[in-house]
Amino acid sequence: MIKKPLSALTDQELLQEAKKRKSTAIxxxxxxxxxxxxxxxxxxxxxxxFLMLIxxxxxxxxxxxxxxxxxxxxxLLKERNLK
Length: 83
Hints:
The protein is mainly alpha-helical. The protein has helices at residues 11-45, 53-63, 68-79.
């Protein structure tokens, strides 16, 4: 699927994209919380092991997603008075 630039989207498509990104942010927050819970549980039940690095790495990747697209989307929504 070819991804259109945000400036080429219609007003309705921009609103749908903003809604989709908001739900994605909530899902990411739940996953990060779960992964951090796995890390704490493994620390309490045993010692620091190699397998504990996997949830830490996944949480790091989820936290450090590029945020520049969200800023562009917010600017377009504000420019078009949609929010």
